[in-house]
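for ur thesis appendix - Large ribosomal subunit protein bL25. copy paste whatever u need, i formatted it the way the template wanted (i think)
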Amino acid sequence: METIKIAGVKREAFGKKESKSIRKQGQVPCVIYGNGETVHFSVDARSLKPLIYTPQSFLIEFDIEGKKEVGVMREVQYHPVTDQVLHADFFHVIPGKPISIDVPVKLTGNSEGVKQGGKLILSKRKVRISATMENLPDEIVVDVTTLGLGKSIFVGDLKYDHITILTPATTAICAVKMTRAARGAAAAAEAAAAAKK
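the 3d part is after this line
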């Protein structure tokens, strides 16, 4: 998984007043927890943009006044009107220890059902997985080549080495829906076959 580096400044004072003052300086109050410790710090609001305005997930390497912390984003709080980032929570990543994270789904292949006139629908853009830092993928690749008309691929159909998928097995990832054109073609084929009998 791709890593983004962000510099942070340790926070000693907490509370609404302090947080407001930090935001006025273009900083975002943050916390990283797990691993038995909680670290309060702030980062430049601009440095969070690559993490927030993307479907991708990243490992984040923080340099908090010389102390290195590696984490993943857990939660972001936004201002209800301005959409300004008010606070960000991160979770410690420890080498060799599994962590849960949402990763994007990428469909690959040319589906059988699409060749027959169906329409490929992606219904789950991200799935939650658990893996160690070393095995975290940038995305979950789903091959749709054999997916037929009217058929779906579910989370339970996916199998990957060194990755546990936490999203429920009954969740549909994608499907090939029957379009009007495909229905018409299927009906015409049936009528032609019946006429030959």
